[in-house]
Amino acid sequence: MDKKFIDGLIIKEKTITGVNGEFSIMNASINIEELFNSLGAIATTDRDGKQWANITIKKRSEPSQSGVTHYAVPNDYKPKGDTSKNKITADDIPDTLNADNVPF
């Protein structure tokens, strides 16, 4: 099986040390036409007629010569069994969010 990649997406991670310690940022360059075509090739349509393309961002074992640190591949995971109990409906969402009912 050939490994598939998502074209049109370049991700470069940089680690920065600041006064509060070390953190990383990721910069992405997107070729809109290539990315659109790549996502269109793997898109699926849900029961509401909306198209979705699931991808996984993976870290390269070593940066490329041009500094690319991550790449994207199609995520074709399909849950096994009945997933209807995992769905959130409008009834699950409170009418008004406030400090007392926010889950975090």
Structure report:
The protein is mainly β and 104 residues long. It has a domain at 9-77. Helix content is 11%, strand content 33%. It is built from one helix and six strands. The chain has one helix spanning 32-42, and strands at 9-18, 21-30, 44-45, 51-52, 55-59, 70-74. The strands form three sheets. A two-stranded antiparallel ribbon has the order 1-2. The radius of gyration is 19 Å and the shape is extended. The model has no long low-confidence stretch (mean pLDDT 86).
**Count of runs of 4 or more consecutive helical residues:** 1
Head-to-tail CA distance between termini: 43 Å
Main beta-sheet strand count, sense and barrel state: 2 strands, antiparallel
Share of residues in strands: 25-35%
What does the overall shape look like? extended
Number of strands: 6
Query: Low-confidence segments, ≥5 residues, pLDDT <50?
Result: none
Mean pLDDT reading: 86
Structure classification: mainly beta
Key structural traits:
single chain, 104 residues, mainly beta, two-stranded antiparallel sheet, extended
Topology at a glance:
Elements: E1 9-18, E2 21-30, H1 32-42, E3 44-45, E4 51-52, E5 55-59, E6 70-74
Antiparallel strand pairs: 1-2, 3-4, 5-6
Question: Quick summary of this structure?
Answer:
By secondary structure, this protein is mostly beta strands.
